[in-house]
Amino acid sequence: MTEQSEVRAFYSGKNFFITGGTGFVGLCLIEKVLRTIPDVGKLYLLMRPKKGKEISKRLEEFPGNPVFEKLLETESKDIFNKLIPVAGDVGEDDLGLSQTDRDILVKNVNVVIHSAATLDFQENLSPTVKINIMGTRRVMQLCKEIKDLKVMVHVSSAYVNSYLTEAHEKIYDAPEDVEKVISLVKTMNDDALNEIEPQILKNHLNTYTFTKHLAEHEVKNCAHLFPCTIVRPTMIVAAWKEPVPGWTCSKVGPQGFLMGAAKGVVRRLPMCKNNIADYIPVDVVVNQLLVAGWHAAKKKSGLTVYHCSSSTQKPFRWTMLEYKVNEMLHKYPLKSAVWYPRLEFVSSLWLFRVSAIFVHFFPAVLLDMMLRLTGGRPILFRLHKNVWSSLGRLEKFIFNEWRYHNPNTRDLCRTLTAPDDKLFYIDISDIDWVDYFVTLHLGVRRYLNREKVSTLCAARRKDTFLLAAHVLWQIGIIYLLWLLVAVITGLTMTQSAWTAPLIYMLLSLL
């Protein structure tokens, strides 16, 4: 007799309530459920109007999202009838739900997956508390009312404990009294909150990690009432295997800077390349949410925390790719590149700032002028200015290293049957990071830069042209600087010929 999938059997016929369903993880989660659990019940998606579009209109756009291409190879668009949009917002009282919608959820939902959060490291306390802490509290209150809740899965972050260089799969003591924090947000204006923010955050790096830490305690407070589990992903990156290798809609982390590097506009990156960079593919995260939910429902008691991470199991360092990044950029170039790609890592912020003046800002001014002349929208200078201003907030994340131990995740992996291990894989021990990043780059090329495989030949021809232009540009710059030195020193060009190789060496260091 063929062994069956226990995870799929558990979720068959169950109705989900999902927050954050239109985000990176949420879209991949919805796709996975629809494709691998065909007998699933309804998926109620908490949504809010965006850019003037009502939630029904936003839902109508789902079938056109590339994440669902594989699903639609075997299913008709009728499969999306399982998706039920519910108007609401985790940042509003009672989740912004109408009484009718709340009654429907209370009566029908069996599985809750809470993924919604504000991820902005620049936000002050007010919005992060209202969304990350109070939003989680509102979700937990709804869970208390649901008649037949089988499990609640909370999507947290490994970086809730980023004040520690090593963290384990447990809930650490709250950094502050949550009622005090909520009271401050309700009674103080933003200016006053900004003034006391350092005293409130203590050793937390920003309001995001602080509020997500306190949100875990909201889940812990309900763990005795119904099965709960917490999954803490690290930096979530493009899909490893499913639904399509390399799929992404996120510009965060390596996806964002590879997007810019392929265009030729990001040429230097501040990075401690010998440090472990803890990346985890989005499909592994989604699988772990489903597997952790199944296991929590099966146990029916206790609260288990899982690190969905790679740092202590299959660590990645940028030294693995240092000499392959540019090879990758030119093997799979962009037709839309604006300059010859060349990405180099720099080991400090001050060196990055110096080099950015010459390799980012000067070319950005030139290219923005060209865009204006051709009727385009100048954006490069503003883009680099935004990166420049954000470096101070990101410095600790750029140059620090964390190790997130994951024995609970490894134990969870061992509980899976053979069919589940294949269908809901969470073991990353056999990932080849070099091969994976080629896949990620191809995904960035297709999904973020929106260039199909059919454009590769034209892109490679342009890459050759840009190389020639880049060499001529460098020769021109060296010649002008050489001429300037000759004029200043009163030497002839021949007498000052030694300056040409010196200028070249200095430019290569920038």
UniProtKB/TrEMBL annotation:
Species: Papilio xuthus (Asian swallowtail butterfly)
PANTHER family: FATTY ACYL-COA REDUCTASE CG8306-RELATED, MALE STERILITY PROTEIN 2-RELATED
Enzyme superclass (EC): oxidoreductase
Known catalytic reactions: a long-chain fatty acyl-CoA + 2 NADPH + 2 H(+) = a long-chain primary fatty alcohol + 2 NADP(+) + CoA
Gene Ontology MF, one: alcohol-forming long-chain fatty acyl-CoA reductase activity
SUPFAM superfamilies: NAD(P)-binding Rossmann-fold domains
Gene that encodes the chain: LOC106124853
Keywords: Lipid biosynthesis, Lipid metabolism, Membrane, NADP, Oxidoreductase, Transmembrane, Transmembrane helix
Enzyme Commission numbers on file: 1.2.1.84
Task performed by this protein: Catalyzes the reduction of fatty acyl-CoA to fatty alcohols.
InterPro entries (UniProt xref): FAR, FAR_C, FAR_NAD-bd, NAD(P)-bd_dom_sf
Domain Fatty acyl-CoA reductase C-terminal, first and last residues per copy: 360-451
Subcellular location: Membrane
Topology of the protein relative to the lipid bilayer: Multi-pass membrane protein
Family assignment from sequence similarity: Belongs to the fatty acyl-CoA reductase family.
GO CC annotation: membrane; peroxisome
Thioester reductase (TE) domain span: 18-288
Transmembrane segments: 350-371, 464-482
Keyword Signal belongs to the record: no
Record keyword Repeat present: no
GO BP annotation list: long-chain fatty-acyl-CoA metabolic process
Pfam family, any one: Sterile
Listed name of the protein: Fatty acyl-CoA reductase
